[in-house]
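hiii so um. not sure if this is the right channel but i have a protein structure encoded as tokens and i wanna go backwards to a sequence. like what aa goes where. can anyone help
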């Protein structure tokens, strides 16, 4: 993604999600939506996106991009480096928006549509330079779910598909590039099959909408998050694999279990039944409350999958590594004021950190201090290239003091002071504060040893790293020695 920013056409549920995804990746956004409530709606989605990504991504996010609301699709497309259309799911509306944007956008700009099923060949029919058009179909919430289906039309160039996929990857997404265009693409065709069957189950009073949702979220949905459909069935075949599964369960495809080729009439009676059951299922929770609950659950699933490097968790982990390896944080703004320690790491206390006492487990304090140490190392220039060359700092000793409790959703930050160093060792002290009132929650004193990871032994840090360490240590030389530094656990007599 270049520095020209992005133009968005539409600021509804999907367009607002795209705005959050781009803005929170540090990309300026020009957004067109004729709805007078668009600023409020987009602002609320953006706030949910901030909340979710701060809890989902352990790496520091870039400085947020600037949002500019414009009055026409041409203004949104003029001067930007990428255009994403997310207007109403009507072919005539989308064709008008895309044609207008194509006349205003520079010739090298890819223009994508968020359509969930309209054929790209029809959408690009009236565009200027239609070869730079493709579908980029995301999933709600766009700022959190990584999948985006990329599909070209008859006149779309292969280069356009590659460039669109590159943009989406840079946002921490997983582009699925389709081999050919088809109504509904891949994911929505699968979802439509499930949706049709669900409608019949409600129509025939076999199950309520809540019971159908329970059948997914307590069962197959948990497997799908990690394994998808085919790998799940292969595992079900046991040691003999997919062939055994198909031999055992394939004949069931001929049984009259499904009504996928038949659709119930969406009568007023059926619609009233679905609406009433859905309202009862939601209770008194607003749509924003339901969105935040959805986001919290998705964050927990994404983080769990991230630990195992599976599915969407692997995408999240790779995205975090890109953010972490973006380069050392600038020191100048903080070193210009040598009267205070460095503030290099901020986080939100995740619900999964909370133990049976209702506050964060002590291991999470150590995790946060470890993240603070990693932030210090990145500031010193220890990035992916440095680690690949075999150099890194390892923690060899920690003294942790827990002073106050912290609970879920609290914002916290770490302050760091360098106490001393030589060519192999680095001595630092950290303070953990609650950001809302600056209350001190914990401290940690740590000693790090620079190692040659290939040889498995200590060695000297590079001259570049040592120069940055020396600069920080020099700036911190005038700070008072932290209370408790050098202290060990002592036991007094009665």
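sure thing!! here u go:
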């Amino acid at each position: 993604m270049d520095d020209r920013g992005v133009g968005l056409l539409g600021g509804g549920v999907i367009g607002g999600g795209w705005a959050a995804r781009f803005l929170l990746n540090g990309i300026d956004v020009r957004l067109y939506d004729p709805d007078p409530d668009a600023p409020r709606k987009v602002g609320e989605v953006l706030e949910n996106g901030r909340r979710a990504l701060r809890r989902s991504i352990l790496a520091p996010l870039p400085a947020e991009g600037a949002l500019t609301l414009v009055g026409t699709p041409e203004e949104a497309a003029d001067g930007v480096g990428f255009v994403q259309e997310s207007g109403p799911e009507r072919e005539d509306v989308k064709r008008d928006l895309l044609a207008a944007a194509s006349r205003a956008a520079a010739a090298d700009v890819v223009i994508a549509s968020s359509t969930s099923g309209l054929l790209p060949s029809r959408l690009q029919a009236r565009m200027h330079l239609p070869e730079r058009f493709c579908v980029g179909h995301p999933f709600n919430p766009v700022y959190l779910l990584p999948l985006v289906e990329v599909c070209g039309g008859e006149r779309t160039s292969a280069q356009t598909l590659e460039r669109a996929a590159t943009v989406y990857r840079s946002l921490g997404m997983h582009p699925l590039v389709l081999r050919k265009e088809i109504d509904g693409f891949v994911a929505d065709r699968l979802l439509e099959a499930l949706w049709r069957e669900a409608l019949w189950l409600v129509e025939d009073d076999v199950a309520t909408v809540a019971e159908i949702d329970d059948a997914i979220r307590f069962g197959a949905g948990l497997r799908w998050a990690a394994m998808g459909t085919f790998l799940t069935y292969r595992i079900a075949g046991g040691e003999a694999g997919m062939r055994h599964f198909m031999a055992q369960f394939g004949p069931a495809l001929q049984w009259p279990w499904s009504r996928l080729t038949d659709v119930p009439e969406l009568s007023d009676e059926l619609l009233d039944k679905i609406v009433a059951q859905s309202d009862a299922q939601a209770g008194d929770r607003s749509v924003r409350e339901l969105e935040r609950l959805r986001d919290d659950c998705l964050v927990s699933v994404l983080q769990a999958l991230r630990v195992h490097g599976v599915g969407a968790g692997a995408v999240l982990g790779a995205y975090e590594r890109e953010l972490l390896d973006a380069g050392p944080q600038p020191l100048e703004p903080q070193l210009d004021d040598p009267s205070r320690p460095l503030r290099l790491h901020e986080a939100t206390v995740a619900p999964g950190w909370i133990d049976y006492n209702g506050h964060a487990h002590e291991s999470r304090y150590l995790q946060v201090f470890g993240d603070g140490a990693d932030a210090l190392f990145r500031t010193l220039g220890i990035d992916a290239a440095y680690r690949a060359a075999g150099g890194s700092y390892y923690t060899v000793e920690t003294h942790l003091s827990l002073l106050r409790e912290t609970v879920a959703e609290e914002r916290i930050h770490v302050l760091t002071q360098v106490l001393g160093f030589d060519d192999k060792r680095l001595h630092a002290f950290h303070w953990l504060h609650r950001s809302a009132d600056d209350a001190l929650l914990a401290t940690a004193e740590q000693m790090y040893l620079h190692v040659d990871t290939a040889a498995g032994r200590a060695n000297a840090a590079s001259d570049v790293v040592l120069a940055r360490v020396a600069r920080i240590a020099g700036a911190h030389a005038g700070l008072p020695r932290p209370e408790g530094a050098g202290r060990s656990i002592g036991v007094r007599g009665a």
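oh and DSSP finds 17 helices and 14 strands in the chain.
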